[in-house]
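B., you asked whether I could sanity-check this one before it goes into the benchmark set. Here's the sequence:
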Amino acid sequence: MLRSVEVTTVLALPSSSHNLHWRGRLELSLDCFICQRTGRTTSFEVGADRAVCSGDDKFDQHYSAARIAAFDHSEERDQTGLRAVVDYWWAPFHDAKRNEPGAALTRAPWVRLHLGYYCPETEKAGEFDTQTNVVRPSSGSCRHCSTPLMVSRDVPQLRLLAGR
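And here's what the prediction gave me:
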């Protein structure tokens, strides 16, 4: 069945000098019915027709029937927000290695979101990420000039939407 998960987050922006922007990719933990393993890291790119599951020892990384269906951002004076919706196919299975059933949204879901920027001082681009499983508040700075670029006070939220 087709499932959807909504990812939302808001970051504080202490500086506006670096053209901070959301990158069109993310990683999300999903239970994969193809390799029949729970908690797989699945990589997504905006515009791609499919995602890539990390697989495991016996089953190398492979394509997954999943994609980013929506990727919207908002900016206000001192903050930026992201809302992404990921669609993926899921079917019941049993993970024999962990002796547990698969779930439509894995038991301990996490997401990693990527941001990019351009340093006007050094005229170089940079990138960093934020994810659910880091201690808050967390921050990101320019790797070229050390200017603080963002502060993440709240964990990105994951919400399983009604199946279709």
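One thing to flag: The chain has a mean pLDDT of 94. Otherwise nothing jumped out at me.
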